[in-house]
Amino acid sequence: MSGAISSTLGLMPNLLRGIDTLSTRNEALTAEENSGVVSNSFAGLGAQTYTALSLQPQITATTAWQTNLSESQTKLSATQTALTGISAIASDLQSSLLSLTALSSPSEVASVSAKAKQQLTELGALLNTQSGANYVFAGTASDQPPVSSSDLASTGLVSSIISTVASVGTTGVAATEGAALAAASDNSPAGSVFSAQLSTSAVLAQGSVPQLQIGQGETIANGIVATQGGAANAQSTGSPIRDLIMALASAAGLAGADPSSAGFTQLVTDTASHMADVGQRIQGLIAQVGQTQATVTAQSSTLSDVNKALQAQLGNIMNVDEATVISQQNATQTQLTASYTLIADMKTLTLAQYL
User: Fold this and answer.
1) Residue 76 and residue 296: Cα distance in Å, rounded?
2) Lowest-pLDDT range of 49-63, 187-201, 261-275
3) Is the pLDDT of residue 21 over 70?
4) Pairing of strands 211-215, 218-221
5) What CA–CA distance (Å, rounded) separates 351 from 4?
6) What is the model's pTM?
7) Which of 115, 129, 175, 204 could crosslink 171 through cysteines, CB 3.0-4.6 Å?
8) Rounded CA gap, 237 and 278, in Å?
């Protein structure tokens, strides 16, 4: 009989160890139920650790790209609004010049001239449009205003062209237009109205357009810069914005020219004709920005879907199955209750119960 008692008492350490194990498991299951996750660290995920670790950087990357796209949409919207205003100035200038191709009174010429000066000021403000703290037409140097002067109408470039146009009756239209084009194309610190980065050829300015990362190894041109365009020629700087400034400055100078001279009439006709091309090229910039907006919208939608799928996959690994946890917790607690009951019964045993 003493052997039976020894055997029974020898079970106690095993029962106590079992209770420790069950208690630890119960605490872990309770923590999972309360937190909703399998583990607060990747280390506690067991065989799923590698998969979870590989998903996290993908989620971080897609989230960052989505943020880039959201900020880009805000910038592109501001750019498009400014370009619409610039296009309106170009269209209005063309109409004003066409009205002067017929015989015009000095007052009509003065009105067109004054309006052109006002529109130069408006154009300068539009070119210095900001989205947040960044200038949308500034290129990669987005912290610097594209137009260095607070008033484009008062710059040396505009004053130079106004002075040149005033003498068109004596110097001739070819020399006047050539001088205006040379002034508008000047990229020297003294002659350019643009920032140092944008004071370059229209073709090279295209390279200053900032690139936006929208995916793994995927980038797009994020907007446009003020001086971008194509190759220069005998009538154009290559940049529609520069050409618009040149045309507005020429129109502003008409008030000081002799309207009865052949040079005056030809200059007005040539400038009005050139404005048709400038207007089309500005519309091309608007279309370019619109295409970028469409690309950003589509990519943003795609990344949103990808991010949701990745989050769901990680959630399947990290998040607990509540029904399973409750079932396991109930089973564990049942085992604990049985163990405590057995120990309690063993503690009340007497020698007489073994006889």
Assistant:
1) 10
2) 49-63
3) no
4) antiparallel
5) 11
6) 0.76
7) 175
8) 11
Would you call 257 helix, strand, or coil by DSSP?
coil
How far, in Å, CA of 39 to CA of 31, rounded? 9
Q: Which residues pair with 147 in a beta bridge?
A: 194
Locate all alpha helices (DSSP H) within 210-318, ordered by sequence. 240-253, 262-318
At which residue do the structure tokens 């130079």 appear? 160
Q: Which helix (H) or strand (E) holds 238?
A: none
Answer yes or no: are the C-beta atoms of 156 and 191 closer than 8 Å.
yes
Residue 180 has a CB neighbour count (10 Å cut-off) of 24
Hey, which residues does 134 pair with through a beta bridge? 131
Q: Tokens 């139920």 — which residue? A: 33
CATH number of 78-289: 1.20.1330
> Residues of the chain with pLDDT > 90: what percent?
55
Q: Find the Cα–Cα–Cα–Cα dihedral 51, 52, 57, 62, rounded to 10°.
A: 100
Q: What are the backbone angles phi and psi of residue 215, rounded to the nearest 5°?
A: 175, 180
**Which DSSP state fits 40?**
S
Distance of CA 50 to the CA centre of its chain: 33
Spatial separation of the C-alpha atoms in residues 213 and 71, rounded to whole Å: 12
Following DSSP, what letter does each residue of 140-176 receive, concatenated?
T-TTS-SB-SS-GGGSHHHHHHHHHHHTHHHH-HHHH
Q: Cα(353)–Cα(355) distance, rounded to whole angstroms?
A: 6
DSSP string over 285-314:
HHHHHHHHHHHHHHHHHHHHHHHHHHHHHH
Write out the two tokens for 270.
Answer: 């040539």
